[in-house]
Structures are given as C-alpha cells and as structure tokens.
Cytidine deaminase (Pygocentrus nattereri), 144 residues
Amino acid sequence: MAEDNWNPQDLITKSHEAKECSYSPYSKFRVGAALLTADGSVFTGCNVENACTALGICAEKTAISKAVSEGHRDFKAIAVASDMVESYISPCGGCRQFMREFGLEWDVYLSKPDGTFMKMTVEELLPESFGPNNMERKKAVPLH
Ligand SMILES: O=c1ccn([C@H]2C[C@H](O)[C@@H](CO)O2)c(=O)[nH]1
Ligand SMILES: [Zn+2]
C-alpha cells in the first residue's frame, strides 16, 4: 500500500480478511484489524481467545503488537471489522488506550461487513486520556 496514496476501503477489506483467522470459540464474536504504518506497511490481527477467558486478546492489540515488535511505532490508521451488520464495531477501552500510546491524531475506521465505515481519530475515541506524556520520567528507548 503506497505511502501517500492509500484507500481506506483496501484497509477495511484487509481487516475483514484478518477476521477470517479469528480464534473466538467462546464468544463466537469474530474481529479483525488492519493497521497502516507511516511507511505504508500493513499489519493485520484478529482476536485470540483462551479457555481462561480473561486472557483473550483483541484484534487491535494483536495488530499493534505485531507492528511494534517489528520496529513500527508511527501509525496512520487502523481498520476494525466484525460480523455485525447493524452497528459498527467499536474498540474496547483497553484497545483505545493501546492505540493512544502511539499518538492521538491517527484514524480508526470502524466498519461493517458491507464495507461501510465510520472514521474517528484516536483522540475522539479516548478524550482526556492518560498517555506517555504523563510519564515523562519513563521515556521509551528510541528505535534508532
Ligand atoms: O473491538 C473489539 C471488540 C471486541 N473484540 C473481541 C474480544 C473478544 O474476543 C470478543 C468479544 O468481546 O471480541 C475485539 O477483538 N475487538
Ligand atoms: Zn480491545
């Protein structure tokens, strides 16, 4: 996906494709995510549940962790997909905080299976948030 020339619909399609890998035998609620980084890479994720149900991980967290663990911290957008046709999938509070760690001014596309979406910034999803700037004495080690 080219850096300055990307189509939200492509990212949304990738999030629905990622949903196909959802491991959700307990909730039967499939979620997929596709995260676009500043250099044009896309990292996808799905929710991964567990018999110890509290240990499940959301699709958004999976995608963000994949990207960060491969050296990406600069994000442009994340698309999120579920099977709900009546309402847009809405990231849980934990995922909103997870997104916020990497900035407030990037976009979240909340989608439906027909490809329609609602676009919100991370800041709109999590106003008045607590973030890395509130932890100035614990600066992250820079990548390069
Ligand atoms: O935005 C969301 C909302 C829910 N879930 C997952 C968590 C759990 O596996 C299932 C039901 O909550 O959906 C996500 O992955 N992302
Ligand atoms: Zn979540």
Q: What stands out?
A: Residues 8-136 form a domain with the Cytidine Deaminase; domain 2 fold (CATH 3.40.140.10).
